[in-house]
Amino acid sequence: MSLDANDRARAVVRQIAGDGLLIAPGGDNKLFPKGAKSAKGAAHGDVHSSGDRAQGEEEPPFLRQIYGVPFSTFRTRAKMWLWEENGHKFIPLGEAGYVAGPGGIGKTTYFLQQVVAPLTLGTLPGVFEGEPRNAAVFCAEDSYEHIVKPRLIAAKADLDRVFKIAARTPERDDLVPQFPFDADSLEEFLAAHEISFTLLDPVMSCLGNGIKHNDPQAIRSVFDAFQPVVERTDSSLISVMHLNRRHGEDAAGRMSGAHSYSDCARVGFVFAEVEEGSYVVSQKKNSYAPQKAPDMAYHFDSVLVDTDDGIPVDVGLVVVDGESEVSADDALTAPRQTAEEREETEDLASVLHEHFVENGVGEFREIPSSDMPRIAKTLGASVDQLKRAKRRAGIKSGKTQGAFSGGWVWYLTEPIAEDQGTEFAKGATKGADSCVPLPSLPSHPSGKREDEKLALPASGAPREPWTLPDGLPNVATAKPESQEPPKSQPAGTKKHKGRPSKLTPQQWEEAARMKHGGMSNQKIADHFTEETGERITSKAIHAHFARAAEKSR
């Protein structure tokens, strides 16, 4: 380099020296604030040209240099998965990711009980299955003694393998870690204790001084610090964050940090509440899998956990219900239900349950998922309303439970005995050997093979294909819902869940006459709301007539 080039380079150094954008002599990749001393005591603000520097004076700091590495020197490696189940890839090893969702829906509990606990027991499907591994947890918003440990106990975690993360100084212990400044110390800790999974909840509490959660560059610096740590320790790290309260936007629109969290992370999950007591988790991002993992529905059961005080405490236990037809973004952007809409959902759930009891196939009363639009139209609802009412009706969706030879179905969570009047289909656990073919339901999910038909025992008569009713019910031939209820069942009640009907059989007959007279469902509902003092919805009126019409065929 010529003298003039050196002088020009030093002029640039003089210009930026006050911003701390320099590398210390010796090549240490550190940022030195204005006036900071280098390892040998030279002030970084003192930059001289070669002609001005006295004999024996320290070399000035130098600029960062760009260099290249041939790809032939890199290893070619397959991505390993901390959590991989049923062909679905959830959490990659050696990567940092995020979890986002509204507060209070069990994001941390889900990962404590579905990832941390099985990892410590060697039961987490993935690269460490059969090999118990250690995990580390930081929880700023929950008490370790009152909440975090009981949740781990409820999931039967090996507590000797779960570590609480904290920072210390010569003066104090139990400090909150600050990233990216504590990244090197975190790496030493993970390596020393052979930690395979780290959970930071929430990551906002771990941001160092001067790191603003809505500053994209600052947030990027945090994830840029996490990534080499997990790569070198061959572990996975998940940061938990809350979404803001702007209802109606998807997860990306409700994240802070100008999308830096989702942009920098290699894997991301979003949680949402579908309805009261029912939740969904969706894989929002997965940089290493050909497709995202399915949306998973879950709820909480309650278990008692013994404490050292001798007083059992009630702890929530995550129960995964299977794949969800509603994604987290669907739930986040769905309009909130009013009190009136929630009551309509209750009514629809009651009607939907009865429809499955009477029309479903097999002991779980299965109906193909592809039939839901027709059923929704029959019941005077939308498919989205059916989905919201599904859990309240005691219905799940998933792979067939045996009534069909394949495909997705909706089915009751509690089986019903064969002698309660339902036919068994080909492939069911009972009566399958003596079945004769039945015409398949409309839009049967198989739909590709002629031999995939519904069936019922040979002694029975084939059932006609289910179709939408047309016209109004024939009051003379339609069976009332409950004309002569058994003594153990009070008059006017439905057959399931003990949910009382709001109208008696006589009132339903009156409603039918009003309907034949041309009165709308809404006016009929208003009439009986005033007469009974209970709120009767037009959807309940429509659903009753639709079911009565179907029975009369």
TrEMBL record:
It holds the Pfam family AAA_25. Residues 43-56 have a biased composition (Basic and acidic residues). Transmembrane segments: none annotated. InterPro entries: P-loop_NTPase (IPR027417). Residues 34-59, 428-506 are annotated as: Disordered. This is AAA family ATPase. It comes from Streptomyces hesseae. The lineage of its organism: Bacteria, Bacillati, Actinomycetota, Actinomycetes, Kitasatosporales.
